[in-house]
Amino acid sequence: MRLLGPAELDASSVVANNAMNRGRRLRGYSRELGFDLAEAVRGRSWLDLCCGEGHALAEAAMLGSDVTGVDLVGHFAVPQGKGLELVVASIPGWRPERRYDLITVVHGLHYLGDKLKTLTDVAGWLTENGRFVANFDIASVEAGSRRKLLATLRSRGFAYDPRNKRVSRTGPATIEFPYEYLGADDTAGPNYTGQPAVVSHYRA
Ligand SMILES: C[S@@+](CC[C@H](N)C(=O)[O-])C[C@H]1O[C@@H](n2cnc3c(N)ncnc32)[C@H](O)[C@@H]1O
After folding, report:
1. Residue whose C-alpha is closest to residue 192's, from 172, 173, 169, 166
2. What is the distance in A from the centroid of ligand 1 to the CA of 113?
3. Suppose 168 and one of 62, 133, 193, 198 were both cysteines; which one would form an S-S bond, judging by CB atoms 3.0 to 4.6 Å apart?
4. Over residues 156-164, mean pLDDT
């Protein structure tokens, strides 16, 4: 199996797949993440990685949230404006200049290469009591023993919900994982969402 580096992955047809849903609204985000986003973001700061067209973010900005959305593709369907900043960048590799009360990744981690680096990064970008929630399938990380990987995530303050396939944490931390990133496999086929996804490979 040939593992892809960051530039190759960004150009992969799996990541640039036009069939993926980029247009979720706040209600769709709430359904995918399992809590009421409109309530959670009202008057707070929110960073959404892999934000797609940005509809949910524009709705949150209308509610008085201070929102930043980041996506590899600049297919934003909403205008930037008061309370809404939209950035075209590849994750991991991008860094914010501030911390956020809420950080989310709605069906975006599936397409990232170094997923564990993204988890490390977001832990450092949360405000005190800030919350991180993302759709995440632990099967998309190949790092030897899955049991050990799960224990490692938990020991560093991440909760994993295997039924709903979500990873989350509360509060900031400086984190290191005992894994070396080797590269990404974009040939693994569809994941639980039915869309082709990327498996990230690590050496323990
Ligand atoms: C399934 S869509 C979800 C979009 C949005 N979160 C939603 O639920 O409507 C996944 C998004 O991840 C973005 N993406 C994939 N790889 C990325 C990367 N390396 N950096 C930033 N965004 C990326 C894609 O461009 C796409 O917009």
Report:
1. 166
2. 12
3. 133
4. 98
